[in-house]
Known about the structure:
Number of domains: 1
CATH architecture: Orthogonal Bundle
Number of helices: 13
Strand order of the largest sheet: 1-2
CATH class: Mainly Alpha
Number of strands: 2
Strand content: under 5%
Shape: globular
Amino acid sequence: MKSPVPLLNRITYYIVNRKGKQMRPMFVFLTAKMLNDGVVNERTYRGASVIELIHTASLVHDDVVDDSYKRRGFFSINALWKNKIAVLVGDFLLARGMLLSVDHGDFDLLRIISAAMREISEGELLQIEKARRLDITEEVYYEIIRQKTATLIAACCSLGAASVKPHSGEVETFRKFGEFCGMAFQIKDDLFDYGEQRIGKPTGIDIKEQKMTLPLIYALNHAAEDQRKWLINSVKNHNKDRKRVREVIAYVKDSGGLDYAEAKMLEFRDQALEILRSYPESAYRNALELMVNYVVDRKI
């Protein structure tokens, strides 16, 4: 992370000191260890480092795009140093991650990461396009969260597999495993928007940003025509009205939207666990099972 530019060093120091759960590198290490009798190598460390750099870069850029001034309870980079610097720092982190792979000839790992980055961008743009018309079907919603969120967790698990078993069938198997985890992770995030817990983002923020999440999509699909019009009008034209947002949240809860989303989340969790259970039991498999369950049980 070191750079001859003092400003950049100050900012990267700030980023490193407020690190998050580091769940993604954990997926890299645990997958590699499970497939290789507990042994990791330098490629595994590089894969975990690259994924954390890329993930951090995407968060820095996200905060600029979303005009968000808080991240994990701290001020975001754009809040402290403005948008221009935040965009450049995100670019630096991306380049640093890419070079780490190129400098060591990890081209198979680089391909996995680059494909994930492309999909993340496509998912964000698809969500923006659909948010304008509020015409997201359940199938389109799954495609958006697969690209936006699940693809990065899928990349973590396939990176872990590729680092110890390059060009093997395990790389694709664990890509699918990570994808199922990621789908469950994002639905859990969507459910937080309707919860009471203090989780670092205010309740109802997805509605304010006109994001069509699974509970809301279910409520719309099962609403009478007049209620449907009221919901769409509320999200489109009254998303800054706190009272109206609270009414939408209450309607979605009463219509069974949260229960439906939770059931779907658990389906994805079970598909991930099914893949794991086809491997011999070990401390690493058990740890991965705990990670999968953490994704759906977490409070933040």
